[in-house]
Design a protein that fits this description.
Jelly Rolls, 237 residues, 3% helix, 17 strands, 1 helix, 7-stranded antiparallel sheet, 10-stranded antiparallel sheet, mainly beta
């Protein structure tokens, strides 16, 4: 494995990144949702009268297959008015995602493998770097895994502390999640879910069922979040 980390976020602006926010065209950064503040990639909702299910994703250019991704994040502030209860201190990074230009204008999430970021509520246990599967399935413990989400084995991170999330993505083979250097989840064979209408559209357009590569994007799900590192290193082939 090569350890030559390449920054995807330059700390100054959103060069290389394109927003896609539900109900808005690709490239429209509604309400200045995604911006850079004090050197941090920041997701905020001050201009939203109500969140109104405007789920968003900030896509980095290109498609990626075999790599290691490192993302350092923290939750801040209060959830946007009108945000769903499950989205409190909730965000994530989408791996092996569909190309943003193939999303419909009202599509809420790209077909992808979601590594879910969750913050604690100050009292109860709540793991982070869970797996969710919008329009996809994976193989886990040797069997096809059909539930939408599954929890990792991570600790709970309360408050506004920084958390280091890392992912090792091996094409259509296995994907591993790490929190602060500790492996907390592993699964394999990411693939399109033939039951899902968005996945059906991709299959009809000729995309293979097994996901060998795809886009990388960061979420906006109604709770403010900041990123101070987003870096990628290629895996040896």
């Amino acid at each position: 494995m090569r350890d030559e980390w390449r920054p995807l976020f330059n700390g100054r602006d959103l060069s290389g990144w394109t927003p896609k926010i539900r109900h808005h065209a690709l490239g429209v950064n509604f309400g200045n949702t995604f911006r850079v503040e004090d050197g941090l990639l920041t997701v905020g909702y001050e201009a939203y009268p109500s969140f109104d299910e405007r789920f968003g994703h900030l896509f980095y250019r290109g498609s990626y297959s075999r790599y290691r991704l490192r993302v350092e994040y923290r939750f801040v502030g209060e959830q946007a008015a009108g945000g769903p209860g499950w989205a409190l201190r909730n965000s994530g990074v989408m791996l092996h995602g569909q190309a943003p230009e193939t999303m419909t204008i009202d599509q809420d999430f790209p077909v992808s493998i979601e590594a879910q970021f969750l913050g604690g509520d100050g009292r109860n246990p709540r793991s982070t770097l869970n797996l969710c599967t919008p329009g996809t399935n994976v193989v886990k413990d040797g069997a096809l895994f059909l539930p939408h989400c599954t929890n990792s084995r991570s600790a709970t991170f309360h408050g506004d502390q920084w958390v280091l999330a890392e992912f090792e993505v091996n094409g259509h083979e296995d994907i591993r999640h790490f929190v602060n250097g500790v492996e907390v989840l592993r699964y394999a064979q990411p693939q399109l879910d033939e039951r899902d209408p968005h996945a059906q559209r991709l299959l009809a357009a000729g995309q293979p069922k097994l996901l060998r590569e795809g886009s990388i994007s960061l979420q906006s799900e109604s709770h403010p979040i900041q990123f101070r590192r987003v870096e990628l290193a290629w895996l040896d082939t």
